[in-house]
Amino acid sequence: xxxxxxxxxxxxxxxxxxxxxxxxxxxxxxxxxxxxxxxxxxxxxxxxxxxxxxxxxxxxxxxxxxxxxxxxxxxxxxxxxxxxxxxxxxxxxxxxxxxxxxxxxxxxxxxxxxxxxxxxxxxxxxxxxxxxxxxxxxxxxxxxxxxxxxxxxxxxxxx
Amino acid sequence: xxxxxxxxxxxxxxxxxxxxxxxxxxxxxxxxxxxxxxxxxxxxxxxxxxxxxxxxxxxxxxxxxxxxxxxxxxxxxxxxxxxxxxxxxxxxxxxxxxxxxxxxxxxxxxxxxxxxxxxxxxxxxxxxxxxxxxxxxxxxxxxxxxxxxxxxxxxxxxxxxxxxxxxxxxxxxxxxxxxxxxxxxxxxxxxxxxxxxxxxxxxxxxxxxxxxxxxxxxxxxxxxxxxxxxxxxxxxxxxxxxxxxxxxxxxxxxxxxxxxxxxxxxxxxxxxxx
Lengths: 159, 274
Known about the structure:
The structure holds two protein chains of two kinds.
Chain A: E1 2-7, E2 10-15, H1 22-28, E3 47-50, E4 53-56, E5 69-71, H2 84-91, H3 101-114, H4 120-126, H5 138-152
Parallel strand pairs in A: 1-5
Antiparallel strand pairs in A: 1-2, 3-4, 3-5
Helix pairs in contact in A: 2-5
Chain B: E1 5-7, H1 12-17, E2 24-27, H2 31-36, E3 43-46, E4 55-58, E5 61-65, H3 70-78, H4 85-90, H5 96-99, H6 104-110, H7 118-123, E6 127-132, E7 136-139, H8 140-145, E8 153-161, E9 166-172, E10 182-191, E11 194-205, E12 208-211, H9 213-219, H10 226-234, H11 248-266
Parallel strand pairs in B: 1-3, 2-3
Antiparallel strand pairs in B: 4-5, 5-8, 6-7, 6-8, 9-10, 10-11, 11-12
């Protein structure tokens, strides 16, 4: 089947199998920043934001997302124009192998849009769907706090 | 085998009409379908545009549309009662991104082990609203017992009476994201240190769930006496199979420990209902 998806604010027409997961369709069409991890909705590597909702793209059927706004990590910042959250992750040393980072950054982005000044408990609760096998989470939580502080200081960058 | 075809109805009646298609399957959040697979499915009916995403609190009754996600349910109920049993249970189901996707209706249709929904809904005396061939409002226990209610029918929502009862919820798992080996839901009310009302539901037993009516009857209208509670909890028959947590004997002991702990929490003196 064919369908139009609005990925990072750009309308894209993709051809895909009716039972394909959004993760597969995005990656098959070049959005490899959406990482393929457990494919069971547990690790958070494949997170995307659909119409302001953070979801595991491996648990979403692509055919249910026609005409929807899909945001991947490249939709909030790029290598040369990183988002404040991405800068905070680098600064805090919250990136090691980097595989979980796109999901972590998107979860943080979604959290700070809902709760601009989250407590540590709220950060832990909100990132409960993101697994990292390298950092041990302390630096990730620090990164979220740095990003929250900067965004609240009015240093909004391209948010 | 041909690939399934998708349909996107915009109202409930059109969705029900589509059930006359060959081998249809409703799509709500999609997480249950992905576990189920697509074997024998020719037509997929997407429910996102049916406007079944709503939450209402009216006349001391809560009504929630079938397409409301767990996250939306939690957010809504927090505005009414921060201590709700449903908040405690749904907040522990899956993870934040999964709760954004899992819907109430989808969970009722598939009754998956990860949804943590059955116990609290039974304890809260919830009813399931169904449209289509078996149109009606069914007590949750009848709905679970009789899967044929879903034949050529669509779950449109649930409702349950609002109560200020004290409650307790426990989810027994090996890891936070693991499926529950059992869940324990207790709601209770006391007056003048006497048990006035009590409902206890354990899920994950051999018959999916056990409503501990015998124990409830032994404790209702009795003084709040934790020694008496303990004696009766110890003599209660729980029917578990061996699971990843351990043997049936171990899980039974664990469940009884949490059951007694839950009763103590629900009926502590501070929480006495005036």
